Amino acid sequence: MGDVFSSAPESRAVWEALPEPVLEAVGRCDAERLEAERARVAPHLQERVMKPVYSVADRFASWERLVRRMETGRPEGGDDFYPISAYGNDLGSRDSLDEVLNTLPAVAREGIPGTLPADLDARFDAASVPDPAGSLRPWVQPTKEHAQLPGRWCRRPLRTPWDD
């Protein structure tokens, strides 16, 4: 796996400033995630899975990369292909970031600058418009019931990242 913070400099800066108790709490969360991911593969492959695909750091970075792509209308870091299904995955990753942060001890939640997700969310809102008709719903399928979805699922990008 490459650099999780590739094209996500704000997330990298947050991670580099995290104190040790927060990194330990995040590490425990990632260890639980790793076990869940290992449980989904054949037993003979489990030892090869060394890091969770959906680590806490990856969830921060993927949300930042999507927001940056929506703001500029183009990819960063040379990754030109962005299928519409990736958009739904990134929205789901952002949802799970909230869930993960809520499971961390209070000291860890306070240690992770809560402003980064909020800042990225505000930028997402600025780079998107309300979509009450759900025009993306045929392609972007959430895993939760519609009534439980955060507002970001009811918005569409001003610049669709899958068209470029």
Secondary structure layout plus pairing:
Layout: H1 9-16, H2 20-38, H3 56-72, H4 84-103, H5 106-111, H6 115-126, E1 128-130, E2 155-157
Antiparallel strand pairs: 1-2
Helix pairs in contact: 1-3, 3-4, 3-6
Q: Please estimate the helix content.
A: 40-55%
Return the structural class.
mainly alpha
Order of helices and strands: HHHHHHEE
First-last Cα distance? 25 Å
Strand order of the largest sheet: 1-2
Give a quick account of the main beta sheet: strands, pairing sense, barrel closure. Answer: 2 strands, antiparallel
Count of individual beta strands: 2
Provide an overview of this structure.
The chain is mainly alpha-helical. The protein has one domain. Helix content is 50%, strand content 4%. The protein has six helices and two strands, in the order H-H-H-H-H-H-E-E. It has a two-stranded antiparallel ribbon. It is globular, with a radius of gyration of 16 Å. 26% of the residues are buried.
Question: Which labels suit this protein?
Answer:
single chain; 164 residues; two-stranded antiparallel sheet
Question: Concise description?
Answer:
With 164 residues, the chain is mainly alpha-helical. It has helices at 9-16, 20-38, 56-72, 84-103, 106-111, 115-126, and strands spanning 128-130, 155-157. It has a two-stranded antiparallel sheet with strand order 1-2.
